[in-house]
Amino acid sequence: MSNAFSKTIENLNAAFQGESNASNRYQIFAKTADAEGHAFVARLFRAASRAEALHRDSHKAAIAALGGEVKAFALDEVKPGSTAENLKAAIAGEVHERDVMYPEFLAVAKEEGAREAIRTMTFALKVEAQHAALYQHALDNLGKLADVPVYVCPICGDTFVELPAKSCPVCGAAVEKFEKIA
Predict the structure, then answer these.
(1) CA–CA separation, 168 vs 56, rounded Å?
(2) Which residues span the domain enclosing 76?
(3) Collapsing DSSP states into helix, strand and coil, what is residue 16?
(4) What is the CATH number of the domain that holds 71?
(5) Helix H or strand E encompassing 180
(6) How many structural domains does the chain have?
(7) Is residue 59 one of the residues assigned to a domain?
């Protein structure tokens, strides 16, 4: 039996795998940043890892809502470099998701009318753009950054070093619900 959302489900599975790997990779990158004395960058990697886990879980829920199944896979092996190298790798990944992967996946989801997928992919697309900017700022200022708190919206994963006034600009969640990342 064919599913009207088959291509979207395939794309959601690819995004699920990508977000799972990104979450894992950023946890490992955080350990390197901590070991090198870059406390803020480590916190930023942990925050982004949390955001990617939220995207992963949202993609999984969309797959189920569309009548699909999450495909089994193994996490990629991670070989971290220096904090600077890890930031460059993270920027490249986020830029690819922002500029290529999610726009292509969203076009298919819109064509197939997959509302659940459109929502989760739109949130991820917007947040990946924020992550790329935060990583670029961290790379440009490596060794000069103050160790400030980082916050993650528990709905869409948007990531902040300065809280918005009342709600998340991506999904509208109340600031009071944001997670402060240690």
Answers:
(1) 19
(2) 6-147
(3) helix
(4) 1.20.1260.10
(5) strand 179-181
(6) 1
(7) yes
